[in-house]
Amino acid sequence: MILNQATDYAFRAVLYLSLLQPGEIVEAKVISESQNIPLRFLLKILRSLAKAGIVKSYQGVGGGYALGKKPADITLRDVLEAVEGPIRINKCLIDPDYCNKQATTYCPVHHVLASIQQTITQEFDKYNFEQLKEYAKQYGK
Amino acid sequence: MILNQATDYAFRAVLYLSLLQPGEIVEAKVISESQNIPLRFLLKILRSLAKAGIVKSYQGVGGGYALGKKPADITLRDVLEAVEGPIRINKCLIDPDYCNKQATTYCPVHHVLASIQQTITQEFDKYNFEQLKEYAKQYGK
DNA sequence: ATAAAACAATACCGATTAAGTATAGTTTAT
DNA sequence: ATAAACTATACTTAATCGGTATTGTTTTAT
Description:
With about 140 residues, chain A is mainly alpha-helical.
């Protein structure tokens, strides 16, 4: 019932990239130091984000990372799922056979959990990095 | 981002107790067998639920468990928090110093996560065991 | 009073996952 | 050709999860 440390780092890294000038590229090391994220761990996380198209990576000298799309087009859910996979709040919502072992016909627990999961998913979808960027600017840093 | 197995078991055990006749007491063994929950693990879970007043335990011969309050007065959140502790979706929402280490003044990530956490908490509060009981009756089992 | 049927408390254990590190390789600007 | 960056994969350590074991307590029936 808690986000991974990696997801927390990912949120902060993507926010950092959101605040750059358009076209600006920064090395992982800069993000790592500014956000207090262990460098090698961050590199791993950035790879997941790159796979999902959330960031774009540039190899070689002068390389680094930049956002892969506009901040407004990246939601917290996008980042969360890039790092942790799909939001699933209970085993019975992953493996459809799970419930059938316990409740042969119909499982009311499953029923409401599915609904809660949907609300949670929507909730993470509600926030994008344009909004976070505004908050950040507004309050300084 | 997922509920404990123990919480899942707890939901099902409390639902089972909700469906009993008023005043009826059942041994852990009966719940265990009916719901496919390892007995000793269930006993541990029931102890947490008893501490929270959700179930009432009776020792000695002829003892067992019954609900500690009306099904309508037990929410999914009550059960979840009895088993796992308070709903906290990120480390920075547990330890207030955590954010300050990283973002010295104001942390927009923290800000929105706090709001999401509140929504999630309300969502688990929305469902009580009277409702689950109705679903269960309606669909048989 | 004592035996047995239940729960209580605590400690332990093995497996999995999370968090982070290491090693070797690839790409690219200079 | 070299060095500065990222890539890929595998490894390691620590924490958590899911479950079990042991010993003790309470209560009812005999």
